[in-house]
Design brief:
365 residues, alpha+beta, 10 helices, 25% strand
Length: 365
């Protein structure tokens, strides 16, 4: 697909950012080999979805590795993995906010961030994550299965019943395992995130101790196992509510597995496009975690609104600054840190009709 073919298929005149977006798309290896039968709205959206972030970054010299990875998807006209393109989108947003952005190559044995954004002389290490609901559900199942392999009913000499708000939360798993030590049949322990109870081995294995926050009607994951001791079956029952739209765990993982040298500010950028209410709900949990994350200078939540028409594209962004951080974010970035959502909108087409419009692709039906 060539630049001129795309421009001629648009019914309206391109703006400068619209033109540069198409140019950036055409610079991706494999773009010229993509040859759709028709350029409909979906295909135009796809071009701008990939091209706009690249055009905002401008200097693509450090994006070479990403461009190579995009080739196999662009040849087929398919959307690249979310994690791969989230880094490009984060770089684009930071570039638009005044930074010079460089993608950092991974060095074996060395902690390296995904990006480095610089305002004048103030460099910020940036790690990017792109949580989605499927990943969180998988993580919850893995958490329960891992716990099931660790915990045996014989360790407590009774039946074990454990409940989680979200078994994908590693902290909850660790705390429950610690609480299980020394637990006697008839005892229970818990918080508002997890609960464990033991019932005597002479009982039927059903627990009468259920936490007040447990919703018996809510969807849940269940892992059960049985061992036999002296001819008596002992049961382990582990249950987790299906994680809600939880944004904190992937961000928490980035905070706990830091890839920054920690000698200057560290920003976590999270693509929360899969969670429409993230900008409203996530800041509460993140601010609660900030005191323990004094190495994290801030968190940037972003979501793209790219599939609602090709005339304009928009990101929603919320920037949260950690007042407890050892290294504060640069002032030009902190100007956007009131914690409220703001929009970055890009007009890609003028209202005027394109005099060279060629509808052979059928964009207008």
């Amino acid at each position: 697909m060539q630049y001129q073919e795309i421009e001629d298929a648009l019914p309206n005149v391109l703006t400068d950012i619209g033109k540069s977006s198409i140019e950036a798309f055409c610079s991706i290896p494999g773009a010229k080999e993509w040859n759709p039968a028709r350029l409909l709205g979906l295909q135009i959206d796809y071009i701008f979805y990939l091209g706009l972030p690249l055009s905002l970054i401008g200097d693509l010299s450090s994006t070479a590795a990403h461009l190579v990875k995009l080739e196999e998807y662009v040849k087929k006209g398919t959307v690249p993995p979310k994690n791969l393109y989230a880094e490009v989108q984060a770089a684009a947003i930071l570039s638009h906010l005044g930074a010079s952005v460089e993608f950092i190559s991974t060095v074996k044995g060395k902690r390296t961030p995904d990006l480095q954004a610089t305002w004048t002389v103030n460099a910020v290490d940036v790690e990017v994550t792109a949580p989605d609901q499927k990943q969180l559900h998988t993580a919850a199942r893995i958490g329960l299965n891992t716990l099931s392999g660790t915990m045996r009913s014989g360790d407590i000499d009774g039946h074990i019943h454990a409940y989680f708000v979200d078994a994908s939360d590693s902290t909850s798993l660790e705390q429950l395992l610690e609480a299980a030590i020394g637990l006697l049949p008839g005892d229970h322990r818990g918080t508002d995130k997890w609960f464990i109870a033991a019932s005597p081995k002479e009982s039927d294995g059903m627990s009468s101790d259920i936490p007040a926050w447990w919703d018996v009607d809510a969807p849940k994951f269940v892992v059960q196992s049985t061992t036999v001791e002296n001819g008596k079956p002992l049961r382990v029952s582990l249950q987790s509510l299906v994680p809600p739209a939880s944004y904190i765990n992937p961000i928490k993982n980035k905070a706990e597995r830091v890839q920054s040298a920690l000698n200057h500010p560290f920003l976590i950028a999270a693509d929360v496009s899969a969670f429409p209410d993230a900008h409203l709900l996530a800041p509460v949990e993140i601010h609660q975690a900030f005191p323990a994350w004094d190495h994290v200078s801030g968190v940037m939540l972003f979501s793209n609104l790219f599939w609602s028409g090709f005339e304009r594209k928009q990101w929603q962004v919320t920037l949260l600054v950690n007042p407890h951080a050892k290294h504060q974010l640069p002032v030009p970035l902190r100007e956007h840190s009131d914690g409220k959502l703001f929009n970055l909108t890009f007009i890609l087409c003028h209202p005027e009709q394109n005099p060279h419009f060629d509808n052979r692709f059928g964009l207008l039906g």
